[in-house]
Structure formats: C-alpha cells, structure tokens
Amino acid sequence: MSSEIIFAQAIVDGLLMGSLYALIAIGLAMIWGIVEIINFAHGEFLMIASFLSYFLFIYLGIDPLISIPLAFLTTFGLGYLVQKGIINRILEAPFLAQIFATFALLLIIRNGFFVAFGPDIRSVTTWYSEATIDLYGIKISIVKLFATTIVIIATILLHLFLTRTYLGTAMRALSQDKTAAQLMGIDIKKVYAIAFGLGAGLAGIGGALLTSFYYVFPEMGVPFTLIAFISVVLGGFGNILGPAIGAVIIGVLQSIGALIMTPSMKDILVYIVFLAILLIKPTGIFSR
Amino acid sequence: MFKIENIKRDIDLMIILLTILLLLIMPLVYNNYFFINALFLASLYMISSTAWNIMGGFTGLISFGHAAFFGIGAYTLALSYNNGLSPWIGIWLGGAIASLFALIISFPLLRLRGHWFALATIAVGEALKLFFNNWDYVGAARGVELARKEYSFAWIYFIESIYYNYVAVLILVISIFIMFLIIRGRIGYYLQSIRESEETTMTIGLNPFKYKMIAMVLSGFFTGVAGALYAIRYRYIDPFSVMDLFISVQICLIAIVGGVYSFAGPLLGALIVTPIAEYTRALIGGAYGARFFGLHLLIYGVILLMLSLYAPGGLMDVLKRFLRGRYR
Amino acid sequence: MVNINILRGISRTTLLISLIIIIVVAAVGGYLLAMNILYKPTYKVSEVKVGIIQPLSGSMSTIGRYNLWGAQFAVEEINSRGGIKSLGGANITLVIGDSAGDPSTAAREAERLISVENVVAVIGAYASSNTKTVSDVCERLATPCLNGDSSSPILTRRGLQWFFRTTADDDLFSKQHAEFLKYLNTTYPGSIKTVAILYEDSEFGSATAEAWKKYMTEAGFKIVESISFRSGTPTLDSEITRLKAANPDVLLVAGYLTDAILIQKTMKKLDFNPKAVIAQDAGYINPAYIKEVGPLGYYVFSREVFNWDLFEKVPGLKDVNDRFKAKYGVDMDGSIIRNYVAVWVLYYALEEAGKKASPTDLKTFRAVLRDALRNIDIGRGVLPVPWDGVKFDETGQNIRAKGIIVQMMPDDGKYHTVWPPEYATRTPLFPMPKWSERPS
User: Fold this and answer.
1) Pick from C327, C231, C335: which is nearest to C286 by CA?
2) What is the spatial distance between Cα A202 and Cα A152, in angstroms, rounded to a whole number?
3) Rounded to the nearest 5°, which phi and psi values hold at C222?
C-alpha cells in the first residue's frame, strides 16, 4: 500500500472524525461565549443523547440517524432546565463556584447513568454500519460521511439562526457586551437558558450520530469534552467557525500523529500544539 | 504570635492543631483498619490540597494539572528507593524535583491568565502523563514497583499499616507549618494582592511574575511530597494511578469543598470529605451486591452541587458562619 | 495385694519382652497423640470468610462482574455439597471488594477484607496492575493470595511467599502461540514468515508483547511491526493503517473488551487482511465481545484456558456450564471458569487446613492454609479445565496449567478448540478469507 494512500486515508479519517468533534466544540463555544461558563458536563449531554438513540433503536426500531431531532430536543430541554435551575443562580458567584457546579453536574449525570444502566458497553449495528465507499484506495465510511453532512447542515442552520433571528442576534450581543445588551432590554436569563439549551442540543446531535458507529456507555463523553475544550481554545470563540476549524484540525492531527509516532503518543501532539497556540495567540487562531 | 489568646482567635491555626490531634489519636482509639487507611488518604490530600490552594485560593491561579507534581514526586521516590536511596530523603527529593518542574513550566505558563491558565494546566498534566506512559526508563505503562526491603522505619516498610499514618503525620506537620508560616508572612500577603489585582501590585513596586513563580514552586514542592507518600504506602505506581486528570480534580475539589478563602479550608475539606468518600465507596459503591456501581460518586456530585449553590466558600465558610463572631 | 499367682508360669523372658513392647507402644502412642494423628480434634465453625477483589466499577466492570459470578457459582456449589467438612460443614462466605480497576483502591480493599472483614484468604484481582498491589498487601499481612485470572509473568517473579497463581502466565501462553504457528506451518508449509504485534500498553499487553517478541523470534518468525495503544481508545484507524502497510502474515493482538470490538470493526473498515489473527484472550473471549462482534470475529484465533466444546474431552465441564448458564444467562468463558476453579482449589486447601487449625485463630489458620496450598496436588481431570492439574512451584506458579487455541467458526459464530491436537474438535481454518470474499 503506497504511503500517499496511507497518508490520504489518515487525513480523510481525521476530517470525518474532526467534523464530529466540531459539532460538539461549537456547542461548547456557544455556552462559553454567551453564558460565559465553562461547561464541564458538556460531554454528558452527548452521552444522554447517545443512550436515547440507542434505546429508541433497541425498543422501537428507530434508526439512530432518524432519532437525531428527538435527541436534539431532549438535550436542548435538559440544557435549558440546567441553566434555569442551576447556572442562573450562580451567575454572580466566583469563577470557582461555577466550575464546581458544572463538575457536580458531570458527576451526577454520568454516575446516574452508571447506576441506572450499568457499565456495559452497548453498540448498535445497522445495515449501513460497515459500509464504505472506495475512492482510489481510500476507504470512506458512509456513516461518518453522513454524520459530516449533518454537521455541516447543523452549522449552517446555526449560523442562520445567529445572524438572521432576533434571538440569535441577542445572543451575539450578549457575548460581546453584557451590560449593553441588558440596557437594550434583553432578558438575560431567558437568553442564557436558550443558549445553553442550544449548546447542549448540538452535543446531543453529536451523541445521536455517534450511536450509529461508536459505542454507548456512561463514560463515553470524556474524550469528546476534552477535545471540545482544546478546539475552542485553538479556534477562538468569538464565532462558531473558529472552534469548528480547530476541531477538524485536531481530528487530523490525531490521525496523522498516530502514523508518525507511537499511536499512544498521538494525543501528546495535540496537547503540544494546544500549548503552543495558548502561548502564541491565546485568543485562538481565528478570533476577531 | 504564639500567645494562647491569639491562637484561640485564629481559626486556621485552631483547625490545624485540631486536625493533627485527631490524626494522632483517632487511629489509636478507633482501631478499624479501613478507617485508618481513610485517614492516611486524607493526610495525602491535606498536604496536596493545601499546596494547591497556595496557587488557587491565594494567588488566583487555578490549576487542573497538579497531578503532574503529584506524579513526579511519586516517581522520584519510587526510582530513588529502588536505587538504594533512603525514603526519608526520597520524599523531600520528590518534592524538589516536582518543584523544579514547576519552575520550568512557570516561565511559559505564567504568561497566561484565568481560564487560559487553567486549560493550559490540563494540557500539561495530560501530556506529562502520556509522556510517562511511553517512557521506558520509568517503566512506561507498566509503572514502577517498589523493591522489597526489610520491614523497618528506615525503609518505611511496615507490616502494620498504622505506622504509615504516623509517618504521614510527621511529614504533614512539617509541610503544613512551613506553608503556614510562608502564607502568613510577607509572601502570602503579596500573593493575595496579586490575586486581587495584578496591576495595582505592580504599582507598589512588586514583580507579580516573581511571586507567582514562588507560589507555583511552593505548591509543586508539597504536592510532590504528597505524591511520594502515596508511592511509599502503596508500593506500586503507574502513570494512570498518579498522574491522571482525576487526581488533579480530586485535589482541587477537596480544596474547594473545604474552602479556598482560608489556609485551613483544604485541611477541613480533606478531613471530612475523604473518609465519607471512602465509606460511601466501600458500603454502597461497586462492592454492595456489585449492583450499585458509581452510587458513591453520584452522592459526591449532589453534595458538591448543593455546596456550589448555597455555600461557595466551602465548609470553612459554613463553619465560620456557625461560629459567627467568636473568632476572627 | 496383688496375687502373684497369676504370674506363676510365665517365664522372665516373656515378661521382659512384654514390658518392652508395652513401653514402646505407650511411647509411640503418646507421641502420635501429641502429634494429633490418632485423635484429630475437629474444629467446627459456621462460616469461613473468603475475600474476592474484582473491578466491579469502571471500564473493566463487565468482566469483573462475570468473574464474580464464576466465583459465586463455585461457592454455592461447595456450600450445597456440605461446605468444608473438616470444619464441621462450614459454609464459605464470599466477601466482595471492588477495585474499580485502580491499584491503590485494590490495595485498600485488600486491607479492608483482611483486617476488618477478617477473611482467611483473598482471591483476585484480574488486572495485573491491581493484583500487584493486592498481593503486596497480602504478603505484608501474612494472608494467602490466590490469583486465578492475571496472566502477567512478573507476578510470580517477586519472591513472594503468600502468593499463588492457578492460571498459566502470558509467557507460557505466548510460547504456545509460537508453537501453534509452527504447527500451522507444517500443515500449510511456509505460509507464515512475518508477524505483527498490536497490544494495549498496560502490564497485560506489554508483558505479552515482550514474550511474543522473544518466542516468535526464537521460532524463526520476523516481526515487521509492533504497535501499542491505550485500552479504551475510541479509534484505532491509524494503527490499523500502519499494520496494513507492514503487511504481516499473521497479526498478534492483545486487548481488552472494547479494544477487541474496535479492532475487528476497524480491520474490516480499512480492509486489512492478514492470513490470520491470533489473540491473547482477555477481550477476545469475553461473552459480551462474542455477542457484539458477530461475523466480524469469524476466523480469529485466540488462546484460551477453557472452551465450551471441551466438554467431550474434559470431564464434568458440560454439566458445570449448563448449570451456570441456567443461572446467569451466559456461557462460561476463560476468566469466569478460572475464578470458578480458583475457588475450588482454595476449597481443597481449606479442607486440608481445617484439619489442623480453626479460623477462629486467624493468624495460625492463614499460615496453615498457605502451607496447604503449597502442598496441594490435584491431578488431571478433577477440575473442569484442560490442565494437567494443580501444583504450585516455589514461586507460587501452577506448573500444571496449560492453554489451548480456539478459533471462531463461521458456521455458528462460536469458538471451537483447534489446538493442541489432543483437545481439538475442529481443524484450523487458515488462511482466513479476505473481507471482500466473505458474505456480507
């Protein structure tokens, strides 16, 4: 197998996985940028959606990809409630209190699922799970290709929402200048709740997509949360394109890293690049 | 400073003395080995969370990468022990190497503030763990096992676990008092000033970078000491048991739950939280009919949530409100 | 006053000889009595506590739970057959500890079981890194530690006096892998020249990889690639791509449950077709893997310590498995059966120990139990495993343990024994068909 094809395969794999990371990163960036809170429990919303699609498939035969809208609504609703019930109460609290509130949430959700459903690793096999397209020797998984498409659509829809609707503009205003936005009559708490809901909802879509080719278990959110954080820093968070591109870059870095160095070292490459960015341009590559 | 009346008024000092007293007496009174082991674990966290707080609560530098210092301390002890060095030296050597690491990374890292600094510490911690996981000299993923020596105080190897507790108390007393004296002195004062406002600190002629670096080195040193104690007690370490993000988070959480705005907050946090966590794990964790996996962590999460909503100053805050007016 | 008339007629020689005989018998009898041989005091207790540590939470909890079932099943069997007879029919009570997969937690659990729960012995702890700390604690606290399911060779190379391992270690298993490859080469001459190794990077995988490198090279095979990964990783695309590029004849793989599933899925996805895949147990023989992987696992070989199709060859096995399956809903696998067997081995030792001491004197009983384990001698066919029996050498290793090689067959998706020939129920299918040639 020629090395160009191997290299190209790695890039394709990286891009596909990276697009999934992008979706989750965008959700995190929204919450971080608008509500100004670091959501440690982000990956847990992904996990909830994953479990939901899994059970819908097992008990009702609904294909995971079709369950996406339902997953989105569920995690949106949960995110909204979390913001209203918990985060809104600690908006004025010191940085630390906010951290441990979302971390507490992480513990509660993750272990709640652990206790309720056990640690078993579940997965779903559909008629298209193993299907691949062969492009000049590079194998592209159809599922992941579909997932990437959904991600692109979701991102476009989000962009339209943020630029063309009142609510979206209100959110952008909040992320830029809280006081001014309040003076313009925006109900902060409500907008925060919707923003959080949206961020969680995006993670939820990611979760539902994952069910179709990955496995489902209570701790699945961990690597995704971490990567989402790194993507946001990498890409900056004044916008949604930055983190998205950052996420894709990370996906590709991981993929190529595994080729050039001991695969278990590939994550070090990601961290080193991350640290480099932090030191050179902490606001992110693409921030305004 | 050491007059009795002054001591009584100083709640931090009271808690330190009370904690040390409890650590000395409780193992003798309640001779249950599970409890004794929980106390040992608590002492480890007392040292490392107090050290963490020098950076976190006092200087405003929140770190999620302290496991790096912990792990370096543990590995230093383990490797030097296996090469014949007395653990009584090895423990402090562990702290020294950890503080050296802190010194080195302070140069790039201290240019960052707030959220960015915190995220960078996660990256450093995880990267170091992965690096150790692939470094053959330290055993890579297989870790290091402490060589078998004679049972003795000299090699800190005992048949009865209770002696480990007293070794820990000894190290704890030394560590806590050094940190206490430094924080109550000029340096502590400067650090808090930096936390409030770096710009203002500069206007009075101090170099914030220098003092932040001192905070990191100090914090790293004692966290490394705690890591070394872990190694000498459990006699087997690998990157995932001493350098994982989970350890950083535990250290940080205990400090937060205890209260980051006072010196003795983390002590209180460790003393109260660790035994509770251990007991919930053993009683209703995975072993209880092997059914309720993770229940103890769930409860931990709920408690944490309640605290974050109602008492962000941690247990220390609750205590102070309770003792309202009697102490400074 | 004695009537010396009775003694008239008996010669002095006779009297002297009789006296000597009486004195000798009295002396010997007194001696035997003192040594408790003639008159055996029987100890009677209602229960004997045995500790078991497994990862019951965390990423290895599925396997941990199955292992626990294996042990619990054995305990129930023993108790229902009258318990420990030398202790008056005492029941075994299993006290459970959860290591959560972490070495220091495992150590704390071991201390809790030994010092607080007062168990007479500890069984455990699956993951070799956990077994390290548990055995260390047991050594320190003079309690027998019986391991049935950790295969890292280093565990018996630390000079411990209280540690016993019933299963063979990865060194032996890897050696058998090399023998198996040579066997394949005799049947399909010259097909296998190169091998590649894919291994998870903790103690289990690393020790296996080392042993493979040693034995494969000795056997004359060339190692063209060797890649490690962290167990539980979400993707192995790049790793498999590299392996594909190295183009080995045979892929040797060591991984846990999620890794096994991921490896098979990725191999198909990237169309990686070595002539054979040979696994080192663990994830590959877990019932959950077999259920999940389906056709993706066909043709894969694995070393095993036991297989369901051995019931024709190994006495008693079918019966045990049927009863286990009736209760727990899954077939026994290598880890389950090894925990089952570990409990039984401990039982035999307990019977011996119960003749000499009582668990009420914990310290003595543990020492006596340790000696009983040291002297244990179980022959072939007593335990439902394809071993030659159980006998521990001075390092605590059972020198009669053996492994087998199984292959997942495409007609029923189950593992069948293919080697060694005396236990084989099928011939090995080699080389394995390419992914594109298989029915989808």
Assistant:
1) C335
2) 12
3) -100, 130
Interface contact B82, partner C, CB < 8 A: no
Q: Evaluate the CA torsion angle C240, C244, C246, C249 in order and state its sign.
A: positive
Residue A207, chain C, CB below 8 Å: the answer is no
Q: What is the pLDDT of residues B14-49, one digit of tens each?
A: 889 899 999 999 888 888 888 899 999 999 999 999
pTM, two decimal places: 0.80
| Mean residue pLDDT across chain A | 83
Name the residue facing A108 among B119, B253, B298 (closest C-beta).
B298
- CB-CB neighbors (< 8 A) of C230 in chain A: 264
Are C228 and A262 in contact (CB < 8 Å)? yes
The residue assigned the tokens 């937060």 is B256
Three-class SS state of A106: helix
Question: Domain limits of chain B?
Answer: 4-322
Rounded-to-integer distance, Cα A134 and Cα A131, Å: 10
Q: Rounded to an integer, what distance in angstroms lies between the CA atom of residue A185 and that of residue C161? A: 77
Judged by DSSP in three states, A159 sits in: helix
Between C305 and A164, the more confident residue is A164
For C171-304+409-437, CATH number out of 2.30.29.30, 3.40.50.880, 3.30.70.640, 3.40.50.2300 equals 3.40.50.2300
Q: Cα separation of A17 and A29, whole Å? A: 18
Helix (H, G, I), strand (E, B), or coil: what is residue B145? strand
Q: Strands C404-408, C301-304: parallel, antiparallel or unpaired by DSSP?
A: antiparallel
Tell me the pLDDT of chain C averaged across its residues. 86
Is C206–B133 a contact, with Cβ atoms under 8 angstroms apart? Answer: no
d(CA C294, CA C150): 27
Q: Does ipTM surpass 0.90 in this model?
A: no
